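<instruction>
Derive structure tokens from the sequence
<data>
Labelled lines for chain and fold
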Amino acid sequence: MTRKVILSALGLALIIGALFLAKHLIDSKNKPKPVVPKVVKTVLVDTVKNTTIPVVISANGNLMAKERVELYSEVQGIFRSGSKLFKAGQKYNSGETLIRLDASEYYASVQSAKSNLYNSIAAIMPDLRLDFPEVYPKWQAYLNNFDLKNNTPELPEMSGEKENYFITGRGIISAYYNVKNLEQRLAKYRIAAPFTGILTEALVTEGTLVRSGQKLGEFINPSVYEMQVAVSKSYADVIKEGAKVELSNLEKTKNYQGVVARVNGSIDPTTQTITAFVDVKHEDLKEGMYLEANLNAENVDDAIEIDRNLLLDSQEIYVVKDSLLDVIPVKPAHFSDRTVVLKDIPNGTVILRKPVPGAYAGMQVKAATTDNAE
């Protein structure tokens, strides 16, 4: 009997507990959800004010000396030492000897030919005195001024056909030009600096045998450099000779002034670019230095310049209207690495200054003009 009472009491307690648990679950389910406060993003904005935007084309390249000479030997001989060592970095003044080859053997043959010419003219002097007394004085003066140590002087001008036939028939003319030809070749044993500059490459040393056609080195003028840059063909009609160019090194620590010296008249069919050559002068510049150039191409009227990240793929930008984001179509006029130039956006339009993550048309925002705004 007692056992039945205990079991009945336990069953009744379980039933009552289940009822209370069910009521608690129903009450908790009907509780209102907490209201999450709506977050309004603060965005940086600018007000459009159209102006004239200068279009600057960015390009880069390496400097090359505008005046450079590759030195080659046209004759063969032993490289003789001079007043300066033929080494890279050596400076020479205009007209100063760069290379001198041993020409003693060839010089002797030149002197022999000059002596033969002198003797040939001297041999005809008695005939000239008898047959052509009127031209004898000028030929006598020519012999008097003939110096084997100096270059052969030009022959006297012929006064008539008889004199010409007489001189030519004695082999004087052919002997003269043979001597001049030898003298021209003798001059090639010495290579002089064509301008004041510096030797950038030396491929031979004193005492070595230099052969005809052998490259000897390179010589440049370090006072003027030029940089070759390639720009889009769309700027072919705006890149002009004489245009000013701003140049800088990669570290952006030094700036230089340049000018467009030449513009190629043809477009590269592979890259569809046109080549411009920029001249630049500065004592800090060296051949091979890498520079960045900004060329002033044209001016775009009634335009603004914004960050490229603000331009959507659909050629639209975000604007702020009544605290809501909206989009408007735009017309890009020029792209650079970081910015884009846009035309025909109405003055007074409020646009974003910085991109907003997760932005969409209709998004509620709070406009601010400074980074410190809350």
Q: What stands out?
A: The first strand starts at residue 41 and ends at 47. The chain has a mean pLDDT of 86. The CA atoms of residues 219 and 230 lie 26 Å apart. Helices lie at 2-29, 104-131, 136-144, 161-169, 172-187.
